[in-house]
Amino acid sequence: IPGPGAIGVVEAVADNVFGLKLGQKVFCDLDMASKTIGAPSDKILIGITALTPNSQPLQQLWRDGTFAEKVCYPAECLTPLEDAANFEPTTLASLNFLTIAYGGLLRGEVAPGQTLIVNGATGCLGASAVLVSLAMGVSKVIDVGRNQDTLNSLVQLDPRRVISVALAGNAEDIEQVKAASGGADVVLDCLGAVKTPDPVLTCINALRPGGTAVFIGGVEAEIPLPYLRIMLSELTIKGVFMYPRHAPSDLLRMIAAGTLDLKAIKTHVFPLERIGEAIDKAATLRGLEYSI
Predict the structure, then answer these.
(1) Model-level pTM greater than 0.90?
(2) Residue (of 132, 142, 123) closest to 287 by Cα position
(3) In DSSP terms, which residues pair with 289 in a beta bridge?
(4) pLDDT for residue 85
(5) Distance between CA 207 and CA 231 in Å, rounded?
């Protein structure tokens, strides 16, 4: 049974599990890895895929995801929702994307007052990164993409801090991103399966000296990194997959405090028997829209 992360209610707890109780609302984190000291970590996404060469046994043990009425989940992958108990589960389901975006921002060591470029901001992951970065206190977010309507909707999150740049696929793109950012501290690249390295390089070239680029998307092209520019400007290139285990709790505290505002998120809700429609709908969504 496939299925991504979810919001659930605890109905049973194993005898060797402590700290969880019946009736408790929890966020189900699908990212899981083995933790044997001295051995390579075997990693899976529960209900989706094995990620490392020897992770098939772990996947067979935790093979079923959340497209079901009930699911058996490892306790280590559950985060209680007390800090955001007043929010609807349909809204909190957006944690699936928000946590991944937050993991990329943490990897880039994004700090209050910095300037951030989000490349691929019109997708669900990129739009989530814009929303979370505002909650983290960045002073300026440059949302970069191709769909102008979606870019404009992201600007409305905070017109004082969010600037949109629509890429045209020509030589002027670099100058536009540079001018909008004024030299970015961090680039978070959330692009999907694009076949060209040009948008990635456009944003890397807008980094200030000492800046950082974080790859979190699914670009299929090989990226010809500018060796001399990286060396002379002391740039850092990082990759990230998913997020640290504490990420859902961090976001829940931001939500409870009101710094992470979920009102801009639109969810399209489907019952389980219409799961096919939900998946088809998800393929058409952009920005801060989710199919659940």
Answers:
(1) yes
(2) 123
(3) 266
(4) 66
(5) 13
